[in-house]
Amino acid sequence: MAKRQVTTPSKRKSVVADLVARKVIDSQEALVAALTDEGIVVTQATASRDLVELGAYRGKDKRGVVRYLLPAEQFSTRNPDLLLSAKASGNIAVLRTPPGGAQLLASALDHSELKSLLGTIAGDDTVLAISASAQGGARLIKEIEEYLSEARVKSSRSTQIKKR
User: Fold this and answer.
1) Which CATH architecture does the domain made up of 9-69 adopt?
2) How far apart are CA 57 and CA 5, in angstroms?
3) What burial class does residue 11 get, using C-beta atoms within 10 Å of its C-beta: 0-12 exposed, 13-18 middle, 19+ buried?
4) What is the phi/psi pair of residue 138, to 5°?
5) Which residue has the higher pLDDT, 110 or 127?
6) What pLDDT, in 10s, does the model give residues 82-110?
7) Burial of 145 (0-12, 13-18, 19+ CB in 10 A)
8) For 14-33, what is the mean pLDDT?
9) How far apart are CA 149 and CA 25, in angstroms?
10) CA–CA separation, 54 vs 33, rounded Å?
11) DSSP state string for 20-59
12) Calpha distance 43→29 (Å, rounded)
């Protein structure tokens, strides 16, 4: 397997999120081993902290396998709680997330069918979303908020149904 060059905690967390999404990571020890296979040496404490900062939790996947899951997986393809704030400048929307949440939000947006979204760039807690329109940043924020609020409505409806 090709080794990855990881120089920052943000990049390492991106690799952790990728591993959790692609592989069955059922323990912190399994994560440490998977990271080692990627050429990234971490302690169990660092792996634990990365999982917490990404919002990972242990649960059953679609096949019933107990493993670590990411919040975006909990809400299908989008998590409305990932967007803390948003500001526009020209054709750019600057989206703030909790620490470690930017990659998850950017991935959900990249897989959405928002017509005015050209693409995203994610850091640790900030996503830059680029609008197709020269002054479309503010409109893009409204579209993103609507897209995410649809997930919140669906999530609250399923919670209400389960409570009955």
Assistant:
1) Orthogonal Bundle (1.10)
2) 26
3) middle
4) -65, -40
5) 127
6) 788 999 999 999 999 887 778 888 888 98
7) middle
8) 92
9) 30
10) 18
11) HHHS---SHHHHHHHHHHTT----HHHHHHHHHHHT-EEE
12) 9
CA dist., res. 39 & res. 3, Å (int): 5
Least confident range of 69-83, 106-120, 139-153: 69-83
Do 105 and 98 form a contact (C-beta atoms < 8 A)?
no
42's tokens: 């971490």
Contact of 66 with 60, CB cutoff 8 Å: yes
The DSSP bridge partners found for residue 85 are 96
Helices 9-22 and 44-54 pack at an angle, to 10 degrees, of 80
Which residue bears the tokens 């928002």? 114
Residue 122: which residues within 8 A CB-CB, separation 6 or more?
14, 102, 103, 105, 106, 107, 128
**Which CATH architecture is the domain 80-163 placed in?**
2-Layer Sandwich (3.30)
Residues present in the chain in total: 164
**Joined tokens for residue 117:** 């979204």
Whether the pLDDT of residue 137 is over 70: the answer is yes
Each domain of the chain, given as residue ranges in start order, spans 9-69, 80-163
Q: Which helix (H) or strand (E) holds 136?
A: none
